[in-house]
């Protein structure tokens, strides 16, 4: 009954029938109360997003796996203190952090959300040292700006660690499967025989024993089996190497046949059965070869091919120099491993029949397998680590905002890996940070098409990709219709996703409906209070409504969640710039530049703050850096010309603006500034021409009024103009 319920619960979990799994697991726990079954029920609750239920049933549990599940439940409920207490060693349980790499990763997340950056970095590094394939830990280190180079993290040390882990898991799985299957087979056979004979009259208990188990069973066997029939399957007296992984693997199946199942590697565990098998083969060989002379039999045995006689080292004898340096793919090596295993099995059977009692038991008990298995394992690990090195380098460069380097790294990937959703999203983000919105739009559109083809498996990727970036790209490109269509599509996919409401808010923000956009972003925050970008977008909308106090609060809240969110530092700087707190603004812009040192926009506004603080030389140097960082950005060139004009250097300012006019001919502010400079140079005809061009380009009403005022005062002497301004 217990095994049947266990199998059903695991099957329901794998098929996402969570409520049915909860119902069956409750029946299981009521009939067979144990902490392991309690853990299974907690897994069911967590899978069904009922963290509170898992929290209450696991509270006070002492087993390591129970502590890990309890800590995970606390983390979901935002009970960071209790989660940390459950994971850390204490007087009650002095073991290490439960869950291994996953436990350290969870503890790192807890420390990060609690604002303990150094402790979180330590835990993420510990998780990577225990499991080099814990990619999320490396991603968190990249987000915190503390990641080492990928070639250092995924190095030979990681390869040796993975080899040890894979070998240990292989031995643990094979030995645990043998023990479990033998125990369950014996129990099933015993139950079947009891069912057949329990009502047979006139038979004694000893007769029943002999009938059920045969005359060769030792006297104490029946007592042991009888005791085991009332024992929980997880409390076997035989130590099993897989008990620590019991929650991750489904329980063994019941075998209803009367014979024991044929298990690979059975000989290596049970020496008696193996020797019996060898003796049977020898007896068959003797009966077959009794009619031949001894010399003929020896000659027949000497005709073994060299590829079989050399055993596990023979494969290296037939490799050409080119093949010896070739590292095959993981899938091809798996196929080769299967073929090689079948060949070795045939060879070993022939060797057993030929050598008889001289067979060495160590060949079957070797946990590392043959050299082909070892080569397959090493080559597979090497391929995986090489792939992670490329992905890790690209991801680290991207989160350090070295976007050009990230794009170059991702180009090293194969076509299959490059065209995956995750890599394409990273490429799109890189173009977005470079302010290359057209290329970013092309990449994200390609991802959108892929997600539309595989919608059931890609909803989360669709939301993640478009909420943060595609909606912002469309907003910058002023694609109002496409942005509205995207918002409607996301609502149809998942109305309860915070990313959806951010996309809707960006749509309203593009329409200059800032109040409605603010409501959408606040809705996103209600769905996920830790969604950093939603707080930043709220700050932008408050700033657009000139409610700078509320905007500052939103930016501060975003920074409390993620201190490396440079957009919030930039928003704070812009807020202080509008409030004419130029020193404060300069400090915020410097914080943003420490995180993203290649942002031309942040450099430009930092230069403006320096100029308003009367630090003109530093402001000009900052504008030069901004121009070098992005030659396509017209903003730093315009403000450089503005600073030069305010300093009275009209000829240099005119030269900069003439170059800018060719790059951005439709900017009314450029022509308006050129008109002011030509007025100061007393070139009134050119001044009137540029003022008229600026008015034709539909400037804002306030700018249009200023341009008309300049045109009216073209022939007024500078002294009178100064008096009028006073």
Give a brief rundown of this model.
With 726 residues, this protein is mostly helical. Helices cover 72% and strands 0% of the residues. It is built from 41 helices and no strands.
Q: Note the overall shape.
A: elongated
Count of alpha and pi helical runs? 41
Summarize the main sheet: none
Mean pLDDT: 75
Structural class designation: mainly alpha
C-alpha end-to-end distance: 95 Å
State which percent range the strand residues make up. under 5%
Gyration radius (Cα, Å) is: 37 Å
- Helix proportion: over 70%
Q: Give the tally of β-strands.
A: 0
Poorly predicted regions:
177-293, 295-368
Q: Could you explain the architecture of this structure?
A:
This protein has 726 residues and is mainly α. Helix 26 (455-476) packs antiparallel against helix 27 (480-493) and helix 30 (532-544) packs parallel to helix 32 (566-578). The model is unreliable at 177-293 and 295-368 (pLDDT under 50). Residues 341-354 have a biased composition (Polar residues).
Write the layout of secondary structure elements.
Layout: H1 2-14, H2 18-31, H3 35-47, H4 51-58, H5 64-76, H6 80-87, H7 101-113, H8 117-130, H9 135-143, H10 150-153, H11 156-197, H12 205-213, H13 221-228, H14 266-269, H15 271-289, H16 294-301, H17 306-309, H18 321-324, H19 330-355, H20 362-365, H21 371-399, H22 403-410, H23 415-418, H24 421-433, H25 437-453, H26 455-476, H27 480-493, H28 498-510, H29 514-527, H30 532-544, H31 548-561, H32 566-578, H33 582-595, H34 600-612, H35 616-629, H36 634-646, H37 650-663, H38 668-680, H39 684-696, H40 701-712, H41 718-725
């Amino acid at each position: 009954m217990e095994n049947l319920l266990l199998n059903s619960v695991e099957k329901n979990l794998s098929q996402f029938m969570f409520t049915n799994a909860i119902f069956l697991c409750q029946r299981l726990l009521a009939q067979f109360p144990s902490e392991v079954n309690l853990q299974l029920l907690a897994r069911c609750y967590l899978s069904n997003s009922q963290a509170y239920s898992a929290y209450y049933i696991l509270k006070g549990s002492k087993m390591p796996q129970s502590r890990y599940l309890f800590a995970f439940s606390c983390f979901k409920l935002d009970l960071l203190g209790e989660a940390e207490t459950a994971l850390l060693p204490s007087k009650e349980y002095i073991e290490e952090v439960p869950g291994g790499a996953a436990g350290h990763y969870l503890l790192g997340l807890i420390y990060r959300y609690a604002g303990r950056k150094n402790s979180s970095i330590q835990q993420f590094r510990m998780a990577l040292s225990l499991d080099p394939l814990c990619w999320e830990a490396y991603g968190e280190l990249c987000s915190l700006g503390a990641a080492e180079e990928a070639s250092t993290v995924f190095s030979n040390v990681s390869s040796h660690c993975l080899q040890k882990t894979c070998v240990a898991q292989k031995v643990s799985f094979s030995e645990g499967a043998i023990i479990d299957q033998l125990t369950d087979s014996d129990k099933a056979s015993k139950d079947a025989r009891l069912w057949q004979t329990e009502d047979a009259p006139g038979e004694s208990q000893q007769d029943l024993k002999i009938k059920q188990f045969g005359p060769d069973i030792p006297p104490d066997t029946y007592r042991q089996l009888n005791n085991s029939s009332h024992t929980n399957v997880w409390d076997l007296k035989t130590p099993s190497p897989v008990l620590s992984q019991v929650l991750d693997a489904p329980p063994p199946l019941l075998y209803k046949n009367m014979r024991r199942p044929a298990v690979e590697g059975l000989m290596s565990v049970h020496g008696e059965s193996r020797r019996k098998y060898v003796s049977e083969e020898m007896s068959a060989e003797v009966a077959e070869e009794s009619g031949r002379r001894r010399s003929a039999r020896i000659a027949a045995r000497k005709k073994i091919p060299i590829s079989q006689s050399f055993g596990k080292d023979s494969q290296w004898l037939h490799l050409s120099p080119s093949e010896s340096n070739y590292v095959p793919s993981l899938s091809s090596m798996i196929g080769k491993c299967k073929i090689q295993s079948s060949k070795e099995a045939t060879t070993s059977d022939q060797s057993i029949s030929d050598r008889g009692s001289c067979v060495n038991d160590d060949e079957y008990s070797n946990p590392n397998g043959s050299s082909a298995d070892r080569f397959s394992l090493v080559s597979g690990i090497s391929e995986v680590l090489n792939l992670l090195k490329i992905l890790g380098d690209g991801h680290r460069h991207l989160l350090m905002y070295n976007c050009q380097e990230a794009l170059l790294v991702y180009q090293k990937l194969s076509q299959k890996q490059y065209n995956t959703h995750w890599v394409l999203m990273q490429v799109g983000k890189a173009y977005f940070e470079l302010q290359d919105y057209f290329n970013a739009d092309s990449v994200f559109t390609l991802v959108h098409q892929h997600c539309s083809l595989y919608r059931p498996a890609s909803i989360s990727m669709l939301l993640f990709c478009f909420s943060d970036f595609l909606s912002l790209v469309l907003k910058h490109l002023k694609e109002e219709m496409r942005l509205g269509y995207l918002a409607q599509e996301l609502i149809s996919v998942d109305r309860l996703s915070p990313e959806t409401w951010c996309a809707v808010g960006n749509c309203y923000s593009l329409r200059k409906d800032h109040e409605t956009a603010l409501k959408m972003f606040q809705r996103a925050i209600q769905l996920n209070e830790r969604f950093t970008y939603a707080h930043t977008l709220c700050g932008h909308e408050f700033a657009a409504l000139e409610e700078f106090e509320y905007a500052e609060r939103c930016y501060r809240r975003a920074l409390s969640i993620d201190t490396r969110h440079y957009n919030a530092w930039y928003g704070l700087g812009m807020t202080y710039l509008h409030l004419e707190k130029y020193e404060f603004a300069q400090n915020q812009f410097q914080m943003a530049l420490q995180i993203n040192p290649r942002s031309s926009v942040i450099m430009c506004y930092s230069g403006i703050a320096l100029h308003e603080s009367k630090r003109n030389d530093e402001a000009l140097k900052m504008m030069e850096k901004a121009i070098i960082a992005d030659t396509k950005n017209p903003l730093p060139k315009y403000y450089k010309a503005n600073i030069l004009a305010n300093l009275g250097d009209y000829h240099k300012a005119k030269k900069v603006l003439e170059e800018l006019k060719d790059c951005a001919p439709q900017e009314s502010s450029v022509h308006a500034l050129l008109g002011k400079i030509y007025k100061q140079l007393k070139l009134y005809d050119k001044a009137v021409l540029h003022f008229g061009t600026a008015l034709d380009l539909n400037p804002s009403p306030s700018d249009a009024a200023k341009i008309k005022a300049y045109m009216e005062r073209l022939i007024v002497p500078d002294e009178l103009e100064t008096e009028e301004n006073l």
